[in-house]
Amino acid sequence: MAFRKLMGLVLVSLVVTSCSGPRSYLNPGADMGYYQRVGVAAFESLSDDARAGLKLQRILLSELLKRQEFDLVPQGQFEKVETEVRSKQSLNFPTPLDSTALAMIAQQTGAQGIIIGTVRDYRMERVGQEEFPMVAFSLKLVDAPTGRVVWDVSVGERGGPKFPVLSFGETHTLSELATKLCRQALGTLR
Asked: Given this model, what pLDDT does residue 14 score?
């Protein structure tokens, strides 16, 4: 009897955790139609992988291009301006961009909004005999002239089977899981 209760609790917790989605905030006073031209700043990586920010930023850029909701500042131009502004403001990476730096970048790139990202986890995790990806990050769209947060979302998930024993819904690679999570995150931007 105790074994059945334990297995029932395990099953319920698996279903609940597999159904969790992005946690997001959309500023109710923001006019999303205003944000036509958007830039994507360098992502900060808090994970063990120092290049996780760059990897996730590239995946997000691809997903943004596919969605065609914004006119994206060309990434090379944005990176050049961000580097120059950081140098002038003595904001070494990964120090977050302050409102003055955001306004300067916006003025030089024509961006109304800037997406800022922080990668919390980007690694392979051993589960039994196999390894599955673990990805967690947060994104925010900031009004470039004011520094006000317009949209904020946090997502995170471990790959692998959603239902033990069955190989249903498995995600095996970091890039596959990161792409899936970027799509989920951008889905909250409406």
From this structure: 41
C-beta separation of 167 from 161 below 8 A: yes
User: Mind listing the pLDDT tens digit for each residue in 57-77?
Assistant: 999 999 999 999 999 999 999
Cα-based distances in Å from 33 to 12, 41, 78, 112: 41, 21, 22, 11
Token pair, residue 166, equals 């069955």
Residue 93 is predicted with a pLDDT of 82
Task: Give the separation between CA 43 and CA 8, rounded to whole angstroms.
Answer: 41
For the chain, domains (ranges, CATH) are 22-187 (3.40.50.10610)
User: DSSP label at 34?
Assistant: G
Q: How far apart are CA 40 and CA 18, in angstroms?
A: 29
Which H or E run contains 101?
Answer: helix 99-109
- The model's pLDDT over 89-107, given as tens digits with 9 standing for 90+, comes to 998 887 889 999 999 999 9
Following DSSP, what letter does each residue of 118-162 receive, concatenated? EEEEEEEEEETTEEEEEEEEEEEEEETTT--EEEEEEEEEE-S-S
